């Protein structure tokens, strides 16, 4: 373990992150509704800490190792979440302590969208912008952004990229140089954000709301500038824009790059993961819309249709926007939507959950085992498309799934130990671990009523979900620390 290298990189990353507090300060100054000072103070404290870490080891010149990458990613997301809480703690509105500020910051950066804040419609613009801004930065991963910046500072980024990038296959690069890969991903990310902003504005949002919601849509975050979320706008056109860009953001960004590079849309439907992703959301949307109409939850088929589609896509991609209080929808529908969030988006997207590719592999492996019961001596490959996968990849997916279930169960028991009922605890852990946001029971609207211990448990769940569990848990293994 190269402690000095880790210290240097962490210092540099904090220096970079400190600059993210300046745009909200500018927004506060433009709108003149206060809360500029907390961001300037937060900028100064974060910058100073970064400099204190970096200056003593500025001359250290060593390559990052794989283990160093894992430590830096986990440390940075944890430290970043705490420093991101500074402006919220220092602000007069909202008036929150360390626990609530850290919860809100970590929720934003992990693109979970669970909130402890109420009265958003009266919040200062700087605070509202900051929450959306953090989600946008967290969407593709602040580490990937740093990977594009660090080479210019003399620090290689491949080990950080491997530790941060989600999905079963982590070493695939879109371009020969890792910095160019990160830049390519961010150009696509930025392009989608700009297009989403224009679409929201054309659909009737104000410029501020359009920018803010574009940030959280492309990041699949789910934070809104209004307590009623997307329901505030009472617009089927706004919801349609959200559905389109949530669907796009839930697709592997490497596939977007390939489609742009080849100038062909055929690459999307040729991808087995995308076909599964679209199929799952289509089926759940149809079930939701049909059940809402059949139960008379909405007065017309049109209302049942657009609410059913919107909530299926929003919850299924783990965004967590709402147009209605879905937690009180009839029958099995709220639980069905929550279960869909376990699947989440495609690998390499901004979505949370287990990821569609893993679900696809689990199903194919299950079918293979059924066939082996009939043909015990047959050699049957698990294929994605026409490509046969190595059994090691399949084993890794099963290991991830088993670990995911075990971690979920432990977090659920821990949350229930704080005094929460089963429905609230079940949904809160699911919404946090899947980086979804809204749950059921006491956390259907927000998480403000939870105890401090419950909020810290859920902060851990959000970080585990964002880091896809293994990146965090590997640090707890004795082998990791052996020379």
Describe this structure in words.
With 483 residues, the chain is mostly helical. Helices cover 64% and strands 1% of the residues. It has 23 helices and 2 strands. Strands 1-2 form a two-stranded antiparallel sheet. A hairpin with a 2-residue loop joins strand 1 and strand 2. Helix 10 packs antiparallel against helix 12 and helix 20 runs parallel beside helix 21. The longest helix is centred in the last third of the chain and has 27 residues. The protein is globular.
Any key phrases for this structure?
483 residues; two-stranded antiparallel ribbon; 2 strands; 1% strand; globular
Structure summary:
This protein has 23 helices and two strands. With 483 residues, it is an all-alpha fold. The mean pLDDT is 89.
Helix content: 55-70%
The CA-CA distance between the termini, in Å, is 8 Å
SSE topology string = HHHHHHHHHHHHHHHHHHEEHHHHH
For the sheet with most strands, the description reads: 2 strands, antiparallel
Instruction: Report the sheet-strand fraction.
Output: under 5%
Q: List unreliable stretches of 5+ residues.
A: none
**What gross morphology would you assign?**
globular
- Order of strands, main sheet, comes to 1-2
Gyration radius (Cα, Å) is 22 Å
Number of helices: 23
Number of strands: 2
Secondary-structure-derived class: mainly alpha
Mean pLDDT: 89
């Amino acid at each position: 373990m190269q402690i000095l290298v880790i210290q240097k990189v962490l210092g540099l990353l904090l220096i970079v992150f400190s600059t993210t507090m300046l745009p909200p300060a500018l927004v506060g100054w433009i709108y003149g509704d206060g809360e500029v000072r907390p961001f300037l103070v937060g900028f100064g404290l974060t910058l100073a800490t970064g400099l204190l870490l970096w200056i003593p080891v500025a001359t250290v010149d060593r390559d990052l190792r794989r283990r160093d990458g894992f430590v830096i990613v986990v440390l940075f997301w944890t430290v970043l979440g705490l420093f991101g809480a500074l402006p919220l703690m220092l602000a007069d509105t909202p008036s929150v302590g360390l626990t609530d500020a850290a919860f809100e910051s970590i929720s934003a950066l992990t693109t979970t969208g669970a909130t402890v804040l109420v009265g958003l419609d009266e919040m200062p613009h700087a605070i509202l912008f900051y929450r959306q801004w953090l989600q946008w930065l967290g969407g593709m991963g602040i580490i990937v952004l740093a990977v594009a910046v660090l080479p210019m500072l003399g620090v290689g980024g491949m080990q950080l990229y491997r530790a941060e990038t989600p999905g079963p296959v982590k070493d695939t690069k879109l371009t020969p140089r890792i910095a160019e890969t990160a830049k390519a991903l961010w150009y696509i990310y930025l392009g989608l954000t700009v297009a989403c902003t224009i679409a929201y504005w054309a659909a009737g949002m104000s410029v501020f709301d359009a920018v803010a919601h574009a940030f959280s849509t492309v990041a699949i975050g789910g934070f809104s500038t209004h307590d009623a979320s997307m329901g505030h706008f009472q617009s089927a056109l706004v919801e349609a824009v959200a559905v389109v860009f949530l669907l796009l953001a839930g697709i592997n960004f490497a596939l977007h790059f390939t489609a742009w590079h080849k100038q062909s849309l055929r690459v999307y439907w040729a991808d087995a993961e995308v076909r599964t992703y679209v199929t799952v959301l289509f089926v759940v949307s149809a079930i939701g819309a049909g059940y809402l109409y059949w139960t008379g939850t909405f007065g017309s088929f049109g209302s049942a249709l657009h609410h059913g589609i919107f909530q299926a896509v929003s919850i299924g991609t783990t965004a967590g926007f709402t147009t209605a209080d879905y937690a009180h929808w009839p029958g099995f529908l709220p639980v069905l939507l929550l279960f869909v969030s376990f699947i989440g988006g495609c690998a390499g997207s901004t979505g949370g959950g287990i990821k569609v590719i893993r679900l696809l592999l689990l199903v194919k492996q299950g079918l293979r085992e059924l066939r082996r019961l009939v043909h015990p001596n047959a050699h049957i490959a698990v294929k994605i498309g026409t490509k046969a996968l190595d059994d090691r990849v399949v084993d890794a997916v099963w290991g991830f799934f088993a670990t995911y279930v075990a971690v979920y169960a432990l977090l659920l028991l821990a949350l229930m130990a704080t005094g929460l009922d089963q429905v609230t605890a079940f949904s809160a852990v699911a919404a946090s671990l899947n980086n979804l946001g809204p749950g059921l029971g006491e956390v259907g609207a927000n998480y403000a009523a939870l105890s401090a211990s419950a909020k810290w448990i859920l902060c851990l769940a959000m970080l585990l979900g964002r880091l896809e569990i293994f990146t965090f848990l590997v640090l707890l293994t004795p082998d990791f620390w052996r020379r």
